[in-house]
Amino acid sequence: MFRQLKEDIASVKERDPAARSSFEIWLTYSGLHAVRSYRVAHWCYKRKLFTLARIISQASRFFTGIEIHPGATIGKGLFIDHGMGVVIGETAEIGDNCLIYQGVTLGGTGKDKGKRHPTLGNNVMVGAGAKVLGPFKVGDNVKIAANAVVLEEIPPNCTAVGVPARIIQRGAVKPTQDLDQIHIPDPVAQEMNRLREKIDSLQCELCECEKRNANNK
């Protein structure tokens, strides 16, 4: 347990420039408190102490603003930055060394039983306000931009942007090391630029045709 706590604190230290000391992180970081409470609740959940597990998770939600269902599966080194409004569903799975910002939902769709929440691979970054909905896999080293809505599987080493999310970059570096959420290509703007260039090209061709017709007359 203490080794796991040290790993969780080290994960925060590595990725938050505002973190000054291990003691400060342990005392004041709501994301760390939520993850630690989840570990206890999950231990109870695995031993079929379901009501006690939910009481612990709901008490943590009250104090931290982060709701993690005790049935979720979370690897080591998860850092929930700020964290207010984060929701992680019962069948969600999160790999090692992931980074989740405030307002993120790892949710399900419909009322089906069984696997209904997403699976995140290792080193995944989910930007502020993003929603990942459904029982699909998000591969290792994926970056999901702020406010994106992910509704289908994302292969490893990609960056996804938009509503619904589209892949706009492949072969990215580890997103949990490159935390930039601003300088990300805009797929809508890129498509608009392509259309504008096509329209300009067609207008030039039309002008040439009109000139030739005028000369022939």
Can you describe this structure?
The protein has 217 residues and is an alpha/beta fold. The protein is built from five helices and 15 strands. It has a six-stranded mixed sheet. A hairpin with a 4-residue loop joins strand 14 and strand 15. Helix 3 packs antiparallel against helix 4. The protein is elongated, with a radius of gyration of 23 Å. The model has no long low-confidence stretch (mean pLDDT 86).
Reconstruct the topology from this structure.
Layout lengths: L1 H14 L6 H7 L1 H17 L3 H15 L2 E2 L4 E2 L4 E2 L6 E2 L4 E2 L4 E2 L4 E3 L11 E2 L4 E2 L4 E3 L3 E2 L4 E2 L4 E2 L7 E4 L4 E5 L16 H30 L1
Parallel strand pairs: 1-4, 2-5, 3-6, 4-7, 5-8, 6-9, 7-10, 8-11, 9-12, 10-13, 12-14
Antiparallel strand pairs: 14-15
Report a brief summary of the structure:
The protein is α/β, with parallel strands linked by helices. It has 5 helices and 15 strands. The strands form 3 sheets. The chain has a 6-stranded mixed beta sheet with strand order 3-6-9-12-14-15. A 5-stranded parallel beta sheet has the order 1-4-7-10-13.
Q: Looking across the biggest beta sheet, what order are the strands in?
A: 3-6-9-12-14-15
Secondary structure tally, helices: 5
Q: How many beta-strand segments?
A: 15
Rg, rounded, reads 23 Å
Categorize the overall geometry: elongated
